[in-house]
Amino acid sequence: MLKLAHGAVLTPEDRGILEGLARETILVGARRELIAEGARPDYVHLVLEGFACRYKMLSDGNRQIMALLLPGDFCDLHVAILHKMDHSVGTLTKCRVARLSRATIMNLVSISPTVTRALWWATLVDEAVLRAWIVNKGRRPADKHLAHLLCELLLRLQAVELAATDSCDLPLTQQDLADILGLTPVHVNRMLQQLRAEGLVAMANRRLIIRDFQRLRDFAGFNPKYLHMEPN
């Protein structure tokens, strides 16, 4: 609900509707598949706790992560329109998720125009993040790509009150980061060491500490407009 509040001015009734989505949830362990490529998508997943992702497995066994799903993120609101999944969704950490049927989603959009606007906003932001990732992958060098991702993660977690001003949990492994950035874990480690040496970031107990957000933002060429977190 905290994320959706950035997309619409929610009434108490709207908030009650959205809070009702989290009444029936399931706990899923780390590194588990929520829905496999090729499966029929009967449910939309709403991440309430933990980190999940959208990904594809290549024929050589490599994985490409195409999106991170953080608390408050829906996985493809309109996925039930498809006959089969064209990618997989899985957990990166232990997660608590709500599984919403297509009937539940249809009911949501029929009850409240404001909730409908918030859900459309969430879908459009997901697409904006994907566009930013495409630009990063195609045009930014590895060190700036990683810096851009770290800036994004901090702001996305701040939006749902899961990050401090200059730090947030980062439970991703170097392999996870490599699968996002299209690099090897060795290269990711080298880039992290570079950012540390330049006094931009630090890592401690799976927590990211950004030493100087403005410098990191300038280094990455990060512009947060694509996250559309301006107050309503």
TrEMBL record:
InterPro entries: cNMP-bd_dom (IPR000595), cNMP-bd_dom_sf (IPR018490), Env_Response_Regulators (IPR050397), HTH_CRP (IPR012318), RmlC-like_jellyroll (IPR014710), WH-like_DNA-bd_sf (IPR036388), WH_DNA-bd_sf (IPR036390)
PROSITE patterns for this protein: HTH_CRP_2
Pfam families with a match to the protein in the record: cNMP_binding, HTH_Crp_2
Top-rank taxon: Bacteria
Stored Gene3D superfamilies: Jelly Rolls, Winged helix-like DNA-binding domain superfamily/Winged helix DNA-binding domain
SUPFAM superfamilies: cAMP-binding domain-like, Winged helix' DNA-binding domain
Keywords per UniProt: DNA-binding, Transcription, Transcription regulation
Residue ranges annotated for the HTH crp-type domain, each copy included: 140-214
PANTHER family attached to this UniProt entry: CRP FAMILY TRANSCRIPTIONAL REGULATORY PROTEIN (PTHR24567), DNA-BINDING TRANSCRIPTIONAL DUAL REGULATOR CRP (PTHR24567:SF68)
Name the record gives this protein: Crp/Fnr family transcriptional regulator
Organism: Roseomonas elaeocarpi
Organism lineage: Bacteria, Pseudomonadati, Pseudomonadota, Alphaproteobacteria, Acetobacterales
